[in-house]
Every structure is written in C-alpha cells, then in structure tokens.
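Hi V.,

You were right to ask for the full record rather than a summary. Here it is.
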Amino acid sequence: DGREYSGQWKLNKRNGQGTKIYPNGDQYTGEWKNDQQNGEGTYTWSNGARYSGEVENGVQHGQGTYTWSNGKHYEGEFQSGKAHGQGKLYYPNGDRYAGQYKNNRKNGIGTFTWGSDSKFKDRQIKQGDIFVGEFIDGYPEGEGIYYHADGRTEEGYWEGYKLIRAKETLK
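Predicted structure:
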C-alpha cells in the first residue's frame, strides 16, 4: 500500500514497537496493537509538526504534547484527537494559557498570561498582563479578573476581552 513499516508483528498484524513511514513523509514510531497505533508513540508530520504521547486507535487520546511547526506547543489531555481536559498552551511570543479545554478550544476556568504587548479589538494588552477566569470557545466569557502589569485590576463579567459588568476596579 505504499507505506513502510519496520517493527514487531503478531498474527500478520503490527503489534508491539514499530515505525511506519507514510508516502507523504509523515512518520509514527511507537506502540501498535492489532494493526492500530495504540499506547505511547510519536507522530511527526512532514511539515514539522509533532505529537508525542498516548494514542488510542490511531488518534491522540490521553496525555500528550503537540508541537506546531512554528514552535507553539500544547501539553495536556487529549480526547479523540483533540485537546480536551486540562492543558497548557505555549506560544512562540511568550504568551501562555493554562486551564481547561473542550474540543480544541479554551473552555472552562483558565489563566492567560501575555508574553508580549499586543492588541485585541480596542484593548491594549501589555507584556505581563494576566486574565484569570472563565473561557468559552477560546475567549474570556463569564466571571474573571484581569491583572494589568502596572498593578491595576479589573474584575467582573467579561465577553471577549471586554469588561461588561464590573464588580470593582482597584488601583
């Protein structure tokens, strides 16, 4: 079928440790069970992206680390091939997120810390700013606290990075 495999076999099926190289240059090295990637393994895509961790029936499932070709990487729980559960995401510019994920999106309680100055819609964001609170579909939504690098604090209900209802603004 145009694919190369070297490793252990059992009853004419890949079982145990092995490496499979695909025609497009992708490669999987790790555990196999009944011809499926199962257990611990590393999948490297031809574009430079890489996943190392637990695999179930050929998809990321359990604990693992996914690294994009640009250096961004996620460490945490996977379910059915997607970031799902607790995890940490590190960006090349120094930004980082630690918290809950659902279907590859930040969802639930989390902390986002900015590693560089940036802008989101009309909000100026400074290196060292931190948001702690609820996320829905990748963005703050719900109760949260925004800690400014200069010491100011905004607390209340958020939609995106916009404070909708303030509890209190402290200096």
